[in-house]
Specification:
Blueprint (H helix, E strand, L loop, with lengths): L4 E6 L4 H14 L3 E6 L19 H7 L3 E4 L11 E4 L20 E4 L2 H14 L3 E4 L23 E4 L10 H14 L3 E4 L7 H7 L7 E3 L6 H6 L2 E4 L4 H6 L5 E4 L8 E4 L5 H9 L3 H14 L7 H15 L11 H11 L4
Parallel strand pairs: 1-2, 1-3, 3-4, 4-5, 5-6, 7-8, 7-10, 8-9, 10-11, 11-12
Helix pairs in contact: 1-10
């Protein structure tokens, strides 16, 4: 029998790459993990034969996990055990990143850029703990082999826009990217967010070229290793790419810093690419400084730190003074969504 039972509570395909390093660490410790899928956004074909998916919310409650790990924003309070927020991205600038939704006993933060703020919130609310652990998805980032997609060696550009209509660069940059693809100077990969507007995915699929591909795989680490530069906007992938010490071009980033080549017009993209492919020492230093504050861990041990933090709470209890708020409205909403009234 495993000494501990853990649950992965997911609703999006990106959860697999985030949680599988954590799953490997759980199994290595002789413990058990099962998955529960909510909503209809997860491709069930992504699960391996070894991974156990709980059939419904009733069986999930009966599983009685010691702790649940969530890369999303919410989890029902009626699932037993402590609730752990591991986050679905590094982009703390996005609206809602620091919103406290009364769901989590433990926030596993990634670096000083988020740890300080969440500890301030912990002192204010007093019902959750904060431990800086790093992000489990990045345990494999630095060891992932680069992807191979093109025969001809050219500078490699990854375009990875966010989906939010107010932040996405996909519509604004379409014509400029189309023009640059035709010039043929670079190899292009495009990775869309799972929630990207379907009309823009269809639009980019019309850009047929031997130096351009749209990638639908959920494994982005190999794409980040492949690319020389990234083009984005205010996507969380910017942080991941910056950890590799590579330049990022952002269109109208919501909070640009000196680690970004931030542009405001599509016509500036070509010159920005030239600058990114030959970065100055000042830019390289700025990228390194940003990465250190965002996620200083490059040892591949973030999953281990997360489990250590959880095991500490399971054995010693939370250091926070209060229990999670009951939040009856949210609890009722979750029961209705999952059709669970026991």
């Amino acid at each position: 029998m495993p000494s501990k039972q853990y649950l992965f509570y997911i609703s999006q395909n990106y959860s697999f790459e985030i949680l599988r390093p954590l799953q490997a660490e759980i199994i290595a410790r002789g413990d058990e993990v099962k998955w529960f899928v909510t909503g209809n956004e997860v491709n069930m074909g992504n699960f391996t034969q070894e991974e156990v998916v709980l059939e419904n919310i009733k069986s999930t409650v009966q599983y009685n996990p010691d702790a649940s790990f969530v890369p999303g924003n919410v989890i029902p309070s009626f699932i037993p055990g402590i609730k752990v927020q591991v986050f679905h991205g590094l982009e703390w600038k996005k609206k809602g990143h620091f919103v406290i939704r009364d769901c989590f006993d433990l926030y596993c933060t990634h670096g000083i850029a988020t740890t300080v703020r969440f500890k301030e919130l912990a002192n204010k609310h007093q019902f959750f703990d904060v431990v800086e652990t790093g992000w489990p998805k990045l345990d494999n980032l630095f060891s992932a082999p680069p992807a191979t997609y093109f025969n001809k060696e050219k500078p490699a550009i990854l375009f990875a826009p966010t989906f939010s209509p107010s932040l996405t660069s996909a519509p604004i940059l379409f014509n400029e990217i189309k023009k640059l693809i035709k010039h043929g100077d670079y190899n292009w990969l495009v990775k869309f967010h799972p929630k990207m507007d379907k009309q823009w995915i269809a639009k980019y699929k019309t850009l047929v070229s031997d130096n351009f591909q749209i990638i639908e795989s959920n494994n982005i680490n190999e794409l980040l290793q492949w690319a020389d530069i990234l083009i984005s906007d205010t996507s969380s992938v910017i942080g991941e790419f910056s950890l590799l010490g590579k330049p990022v071009i952002a269109l109208n980033n919501s909070n640009p810093g000196d680690y970004l080549l931030n542009i405001s017009e599509p016509e500036q993209l070509s010159n920005a690419i030239t600058a990114a492919l030959s970065p100055t020492e000042q830019l390289k230093t700025a990228i390194d400084n940003y990465a250190e504050g965002l996620h200083p861990y490059k040892d591949g041990q973030s999953s281990a730190r997360i489990l250590d933090a959880v095991e500490h709470i399971l054995s010693k209890g939370k250091s926070s003074k209060k229990s999670l708020p009951r939040n009856l409205f949210r609890n009722l909403k979750q029961r209705k969504k999952l059709k669970y009234w026991r």
